[in-house]
Design brief:
The complex is a heterotrimer of chains A (about 210), B (about 180) and C (about 210). In chain A, about 70% of the residues lie in helices and about 0% in strands. Chain A contains eight helices and no strands. The longest helix of chain A is centred in the N-terminal third of the chain and has 37 residues. Chain A is globular. Chain B is α+β, with helices and mostly antiparallel strands. Chain B has one domain. Helices cover about 35% and strands about 25% of the residues of chain B. Chain B has three helices and seven strands, in the order H-E-E-E-E-E-H-E-E-H. In chain B, the strands form two sheets. In chain B, strands 1-2-3-4-5 form a five-stranded antiparallel sheet. Chain B has a two-stranded parallel ribbon with strand order 6-7. The radius of gyration of chain B is 23 Å and the shape is elongated. Chain B starts with a helix and ends in a 7-residue tail after the last helix. In chain C, a hairpin with a 2-residue loop joins strand 1 and strand 2. Chain C contains eight helices and two strands. Chain C is globular. Chain C has a domain of about 140 residues. In chain C, strands 1-2 form a two-stranded antiparallel sheet. Chain C is mainly α and about 210 residues long. The chains are: A mainly alpha (about 210), B alpha+beta (about 180), C mainly alpha (about 210). Chains in contact: A-B, A-C, B-C.
């Protein structure tokens, strides 16, 4: 695995555009459908997710490579403690969200009033856990720098997708959508078209 | 303190109970999971290095290398696992090399998420089979025209030229980096 | 929903039809989109989720008098992640190929709101029988919803069903390749939810008239 700015750029573009966590990886669909009515809300949610995803990605990486693997090695099998992985991941994410919320509320009150409202919802955002699991599954993220860039790029990709969707939905409000398609159904159909557009990004990460 | 114990004893008991349950489950299933993973690797190796009976795993220049032996214990060749960027996401494949390190005995794509129907044809035997028998001492090139075996060329998949090129790139990178370092044990 | 007059069977049926987690409540959408490209994936995923929701409701219902209100979310999460790990280990040991295709979506059952909401809404305040009936209903409803999407996408996208070719030779699945790609998932689920809404709205109108 080579290092360098090119590799990092490739990882970033791949996860933010080509393999966008929402539109190609189907992660974080609940907030994508639920919090995409208005652009400012969607953007706020996107910022929160990017922030928490980056931190969680780094912390879960440190847990696996800093605790589980060394302790497992001491016990004779590097995978000896992997049964604790999922429990540890979800606990880390839940406590990360709490910490970030307290920190932002205490030190950046204006930021909190603007973006903080979605923070408690993020624990059950599967994009966060999903990103941590993907980092854990792929051999190329054995390296902390790659893992960090992946987590950050994943968050940016989420922000991009949800903000784009909100932009479309603000216009849909004025359109004559059949009654049975209103709400989630039309949102999914629009997401399908967005996903189709994102297919066109294939190849730029390389 | 009393209040703390009263409130949280259940969490602690459940935590310990669940940890034991999980440790037990993992202990019971781990052998089988490892066996599954080994079997998948074994199958891939057998496909690119026919006749292989046993293997030894080593690491060369960051690549996983399997030395393949026949049932008499004679060295048959090497199988190298590598991965690289594809059109959509990373492609992982194994390359088989004969004992003289001059000929590719086969290539198999073990994981890819290239576009279904186009790029993912790189895993079809009909396409990847073209690598079998090519010269390992030269670069493998991709051509649009009919393949010219003497020129070490493989024909690109129609509509998925880039997936084809990236696959060849990974093979070339493996040959460049690992081949000179291989030594018979 | 949780009142004493409703029978256990009604509770089960509610989960499958009127309260279907995916098509009506719109929970658990991520796996419904991600692993519904073939029927096999959909069924295995549904089975794993059913196992987790049944075990989670079982544990929660048994311990419902001991669980203190403000630690309940922690206990739910602990329970769910434990049984998800068991399901994941089991799949990797006995259904290795499918588990590789499902990728991160088996561990992602942990954050599936559908499961924690059953513990919160039903299991913590109802007896064992009612909680289990509810869990099976939700599990079967989830599996059915995934399978419907799975059948449509597999037949149109690959021309097969459970890996057996089922379409006439004249049908060319590569023209429908979009169905196995991500956009196909969004479009199929969107249309299905639209149809479900249409039927429900018509029924409601019919009932009122």
């Amino acid at each position: 695995m080579t290092l360098g700015i090119g590799t990092l750029m490739g990882i970033f573009l791949s996860v933010a555009l080509v393999n966008n966590l929402v539109l190609a990886g189907f992660l974080g669909i609940c907030p994508f459908l639920g919090v995409s009515r208005k652009i400012d809300m969607a953007f706020g949610m996107g910022c929160d997710v990017t922030f928490v995803m980056t931190i969680s990605g780094v912390v879960t990486w440190l847990i696996v490579h800093g605790i589980l693997v060394p302790v497992g090695n001491a016990l004779g099998d590097p995978e000896a403690l992997f049964f604790l992985k999922y429990v540890a991941f979800i606990m880390v994410i839940a406590s990360m969200v709490q910490l970030v919320e307290m920190y932002v509320r205490k030190f950046f009150p204006p930021l909190y009033t603007a973006f903080g409202v979605f923070l408690p919802l993020i624990t059950t955002n599967c994009a966060i856990l999903g990103a941590c699991l993907l980092i854990d599954m792929k051999p190329e993220y054995q390296n902390l720098l790659n893992a960090t860039v992946f987590a950050f790029g994943g968050g940016i990709g989420f922000m991009l997708a949800i903000t784009l969707m909100a932009g479309v939905r603000e216009h849909i409000r004025f359109s004559d959508v059949p009654k049975c398609l209103q709400g989630p159904a039309i949102t999914l159909l629009v997401a399908g078209i967005l996903a189709l557009a994102f297919l066109g990004f294939a190849g730029i990460g390389s | 303190m009393k209040k703390f114990v009263e409130e949280s004893w259940l969490v602690l008991v459940m935590g310990i109970g669940f940890a034991l349950l999980l440790a037990g489950t993992q202990a019971a299933l781990q052998g089988r999971i490892h066996e599954n993973q080994r079997e998948a690797t074994r199958q891939a190796i057998a496909e690119v290095l026919p006749g292989v009976a046993t293997t030894e795993q080593r690491e060369v220049e960051g690549y996983q290398v399997y030395e393949g032996f026949d049932d008499q214990g004679r060295l048959l060749g090497w199988v190298i696992e590598g991965s690289g960027t594809g059109f959509v996401d990373r492609i992982t494949l194994v390359v088989g090399l004969d004992v003289d390190k001059t000929r590719i005995t086969g290539v198999k794509v073990t994981s890819n998420v290239e576009t279904p129907g186009l790029g993912n044809k790189i895993e079809d035997a009909a396409w990847i089979g073209q690598f079998e028998g090519l010269d390992a001492e030269r670069r493998v090139d991709i051509t649009m025209a009919a393949p010219d075996r003497d020129d070490n060329k493989v024909q690109a998949i129609t509509g998925a030229t880039l997936s084809s090129v990236y696959t060849a790139d990974i093979v070339n990178a493996i040959l460049d980096t690992v081949r000179p370092k291989l030594e018979a044990p | 929903m949780a009142d004493g007059k409703v029978s256990d069977f009604t509770q089960f049926r509610e989960g499958v039809v009127d309260n279907n987690p995916v098509l009506v409540q719109l929970l658990g959408m991520c796996p419904a989109l991600a692993v519904s490209n073939t029927l096999e994936n959909a069924i295995v995923m549904g089975g794993a989720a059913t196992f987790v929701v049944v075990m989670s409701n079982l544990v929660t219902s048994l311990l419902r008098h001991q669980i203190k209100p403000h630690v309940r979310i922690l206990i739910f999460t602990l329970t769910i992640s434990t049984f998800v790990t068991i399901a994941d280990l089991f799949l990797r040991a006995h259904l290795f190929d499918v588990s590789r295709k499902l990728g991160p979506f088996v561990p992602l059952i942990i954050v599936n709101c559908m499961i924690i909401s059953r513990a919160e809404v039903v299991a913590i305040r109802n007896g064992l029988k009612r909680s289990l009936a509810d869990a099976f209903g939700i599990g079967v409803g989830f599996t059915l919803a995934l399978s419907v999407v799975g059948v449509i996408r597999e037949i149109l996208g690959s021309g097969t069903l459970l890996n057996y070719p089922v379409t006439p030779a004249a049908f060319e699945p590569h023209l429908w390749i979009i169905m196995v790609l991500p956009p196909g998932a969004f479009l199929t689920l969107g249309v299905i939810i639209g149809i479900v809404n249409y039927v429900r709205q018509r029924d409601r109108k019919g009932g009122a008239a």
